[in-house]
Amino acid sequence: MIKPPFPVYPELTSEKVILRQLRHDEVRELLSISYYDGEKTTTEAEALEMLQRIELDYQKGETIHWGIEERKSGALTGTCGFYRGFRNASWELGCIMRSEFQRKGYMTTALRLATGFGFKLGLTRVFAETSNSNFAAVGLMTGLFFDQIKVEDTAVTFELLREDLYSIRAYKSSDQYKVLSLLRSNTPDFFHPSEEKDLLSYLENEVQQYFVAEGLGTILGAGGINYGFEGGTAARISWDMVHPEFQGLGIGKKLTSMRIKEIMKNPEIKKIEVRTTSQAEKFYHEMGFKKVFFAKDFWAPGFDLCTMQMCI
């Protein structure tokens, strides 16, 4: 397991928020939500002292504390992180949001990013505890697919195991917006902006079998199968995506392996093809595909075509 401190303080991003290290000059903005170990600060000096305590805990390897920045405006909306050290590859998740930014989805996105980061560090369990009268927090954890494992007179405990992070299911038309958002999260590193309209056309007109990896209340990955190539003897896997903050957790490999097994159920199919880019060539090579064709700048400038095949 990898523990803090890190060579570079981890920064996590999504379309909506950025999780980043807090600065000392931001304590005024955080005064209304400055808590640590159940203690509430009342002055800027106390808030700064508390932030310094948190930073010391980070250096001890016991805490990662992020400010939640609204990506569009740069406003500091709240804080979240992992606290109270590691025990049995577990970490406790905590969060608080400034009142003017509540009920806008910022915390849901932030905890999603933090949880994925924790699992990539090697955690096998993330848990959170809240008052059972804090209906907003209970709803938040439930919406993130955390399991309620313990209820006491005043508190409720939720957990999510690494092995239960996501499940794969068939795509539904109601998933369209989330799949398009998944593409945007991979643009421009893996997709050109012009490809969004192509994906939309695919989802509306060309889907034969398409699958999503659903977890933390959203879609973390997706990929499809199309048939009918080379006289029905070849199938193609298409539009593969995993959210950047969740890459490295095996989602892409699981989605690809599942589709290969699905294709192999048809005895008439002898070949599986993928038309991808140079950016993803290594991934498919490791999955057993071999490059058979290359065309530079095929999809867009800087996005080459790599046709890769697997015989079955």
TrEMBL record:
This is GNAT family N-acetyltransferase. Residues 17-163, 166-312 form the N-acetyltransferase domain. Pfam families: Acetyltransf_10 (PF13673), Acetyltransf_3 (PF13302). InterPro entries: Acyl_CoA_acyltransferase (IPR016181), GNAT_dom (IPR000182), N-acetyltransferase (IPR051531).
